[in-house]
Amino acid sequence: MARTSAAERDETPSERADRNLDELLGELRVALPGVQVLFAFLLIVPFNQRFADVSALQEKVYFGILLCTTLAAALLIAPSMHHRIEFQHGDKEHIVAVANRLTIAGMTLLALAMTGVVVLVTNFVLGAVATVTAATAVALAFALLWYALPLRRRRALRRADSPDV
């Protein structure tokens, strides 16, 4: 599949920043509902009658998941707030760069939170062996799908772009 270079797009730096911000906001529209649903689930868990049956370790895992989800939401919503505050100052390239870092950090915390939920629920329902198996599978899936595959592609593109030595 052919790549489109910046020169082939025939866009100004401002147009590129606009496009990049639009793409980023579209990606956030996909991620945020998942964070919101997870957060809502976590808010009702302590009010469930069976929550009294969790162990001290499960309570700590729950609290860690709640914090990860809260921070993920904060990081993933932050680009919108940055844009609202800064957009009239012609600094969209900076907004996009910061938003990109915030989004990666937010998605990382979301992966940790989702893995944590699998740990909590599996441990509560099925026990230690199933918990380790499920948590390992979920963590590996996130690591592969969200990090290893795109980073491998990025490395391959950089090698293709670098002159042969």
List the helices and strands and how they pair.
Elements: H1 6-9, H2 13-44, H3 56-86, H4 92-125, H5 128-161
Helix pairs in contact: 2-3, 2-4, 3-4, 4-5
Could you characterize what this model shows?
This protein has 165 residues and is mainly α. It has one domain. The protein is built from 5 helices and no strands. The longest helix is centred in the middle third of the chain and has 34 residues. The radius of gyration is 20 Å and the shape is flat.
Largest sheet: none
What portion of residues is helical?
over 70%
Radius of gyration: 20 Å
Order of helices and strands: HHHHH
Strand content: under 5%
Low-confidence stretches: none
Average pLDDT: 88
What is the 3D form? flat
Class based on secondary structure composition and strand pairing: mainly alpha
In whole angstroms, the N-to-C terminal distance is: 25 Å
What's the domain count? 1
Quaternary organisation: single chain
How many DSSP E strands? 0
Count helical runs.
5
